[in-house]
Structures are given as structure tokens and as C-alpha cells.
Amino acid sequence: MIVKALHDAGMKSEHAYLAAFASIGASVLTWNASTQVENAKVDRADPTAGASSSASGPPPSWPWASP
């Protein structure tokens, strides 16, 4: 239904392929920019810090939590 509407609006498959490749290219460019920032030794928060804070398990108020 969406594909038919896009086709009726004049969009061709070549346009969809071009948009897909542009999306991939944009992803590669943003990934590259991100790695450049990481190489600049910018201080970041530790992404694993929150995972170790709840080592005791889920709160006992959860019905599936075993005592």
C-alpha cells in the first residue's frame, strides 16, 4: 500500500536505492566523525557504571523476584 502510493506519486525504485545508499553513506560519515572525537581523548561517562550498581538483584516488590 505504501509502495503503491509512492509509485503513484512518481517515486521510482532508483530513487529508493539512491536513498538507501545515501543513508548508508551518512551512517559511515557519522561513525567516522565519532571515532575522530574518541581519538581526541574526550572525557566520557563510563557506560558500564550503571550496570554494576544493582548487583543485589531486582527489588523485592517485583512479583517475579525470588527472595
Which characteristics define this entry?
2 helices, mainly alpha, single chain, 51% helix, 67 residues
Can you tell me about this structure?
With 67 residues, this protein is mainly alpha-helical. It has a domain at 2-38. It is built from two helices and no strands. The longest helix is centred in the middle third of the chain and has 27 residues, at 13-39. The radius of gyration is 23 Å and the shape is flat. The relative contact order is 0.06.
Task: Kindly name the structural category.
Answer: mainly alpha
- The separation of the N and C termini measures 52 Å
Q: What proportion of the residues is helical, as a percent range?
A: 40-55%
Sequence of secondary-structure elements: HH
Largest sheet composition: none
- Number of H/I helices: 2
Query: Overall pLDDT, averaged?
Result: 79
Shape: flat
Write down how many β-strands occur, each being a DSSP E stretch of 2 or more residues: 0
